[in-house]
Write a structure and sequence with these properties.
- The protein has about 170 residues and is an alpha+beta fold.
- The protein has a single domain (about 1-170), classed as Gcn5-related N-acetyltransferase (GNAT) (Aminopeptidase, 3-Layer(aba) Sandwich), CATH 3.40.630.30.
- It is built from five helices and seven strands.
- The protein has a seven-stranded mixed β-sheet.
- Helix 1 packs across helix 3 (about 40-50).
- It is globular and about 40 Å long.
């Protein structure tokens, strides 16, 4: 898989991956009305806007044979009270369902861990929906551990969703 920085021109592709992945991965975890009403054109606009502005976050897109199969977003932690120079955060990892369990998610995480290690970060966190056993097992297999921090999210999901923070310490 070829992983490269995403640009505003990738916005329609990112939006389609975003919608397809969420509508498959989060059934039964996120309100079905919310999932069914995800709008690719609105999300495309959101991606164009986000990728057109300077940001501390990095968005990468993965392609296999010139076909986009997923994306990831990472950067300094967004958590309050945490040193943003020492803790990175994997904000999003979305791989199209047809490519699940083929090693592409692992490739994204490996790319991100190498990048944040080279930037001098000491650890990486991520938030995962409490009921998302598939994702939790995936991250645990890669050495992330639940650090016993939980929060309630409503910003994107209308109805409350409980998320757990996972952490991986990096070796320098």
């Amino acid at each position: 898989m070829n992983i490269q920085l995403a640009t505003a021109e990738d916005a329609p592709t990112l939006a389609q991956i975003h919608v397809t992945t969420w509508q498959t991965a989060y059934v039964g975890m996120i309100d079905s009305d919310y999932l069914n009403n995800l709008d690719v054109s609105k999300i495309t606009s959101d991606w164009q806007n986000a990728l057109s502005k300077p940001s501390p976050g990095i968005t990468v897109i993965g392609k296999q044979d010139d076909h986009a199969i997923g994306f990831a977003v990472y950067g300094p932690t967004r958590d309050e009270g945490v040193d943003k120079t020492k803790t990175a955060e994997l904000v999003a990892l979305n791989v199209l369902p047809d490519y699940w369990r083929h090693g592409y998610g692992k490739e994204f995480v490996s790319h991100i861990l190498n990048d944040v290690t080279s930037q001098g970060y000491q650890d990486v966190t991520l938030w995962v929906i409490r009921e998302n056993e598939r994702a939790r097992r995936f991250y645990e297999a890669l050495g992330f551990v639940d650090d016993n921090t939980e929060k309630q999210e409503t910003r994107l999901t209308i109805k409350p969703v409980f998320t757990l923070r996972y952490r991986k310490f990096l070796i320098h």
